[in-house]
Amino acid sequence: MTLTKEHIIDSLYTGTDLTKAQSAELVNSLIEIMKSTLENGEDILITGFGKFCVKEKRQRKGRNPQTGLDLMLDARRVVTFQCSGVLRDTINGRAIK
Question: Exposed, middle or buried: residue 48 (CB in 10 Å: 0-12, 13-18, 19+)?
């Protein structure tokens, strides 16, 4: 099952004394902060979880798989995620030291 924004809002609502509207506002505010930070080219580090980084991709050659024609792919920015060692160990069932 995929964790959705609605699931996060529901978990906040049931796990705290916030109202559903306050929970939704909190989650939406956090997502907006993360989006604007990444848009500005800054990284996001969440200790014990991981790091979101903005990487610059330069222009490169590509190929259309349907037609086989060569084309140039534009330069772009992508977001990458690198999980922390703590999260990696938790996912793999290893005890945290």
Answer: exposed
Q: Can you say how many angstroms the Cα of residue 35 is from the centroid of all Cα atoms in its chain?
A: 9
Alpha-helix residue ranges (DSSP H) falling in the chain = 5-15, 20-39, 85-91
Residue 34 sits in the same domain as residue 45: no
Write the CA distances from 73 to 30, 33, 89, integer angstroms.
32, 30, 37
For 15-62, what is each residue's pLDDT tens digit? 999 999 999 999 999 999 999 999 999 999 999 999 999 999 999 999
C-alpha 31/C-alpha 23 separation (Å) is 12
Which two structure tokens, joined as six digits, stand for 36? 């604007």
Q: Which domain holds residue 81?
A: 41-97
Predicted TM-score of the model (pTM): 0.79
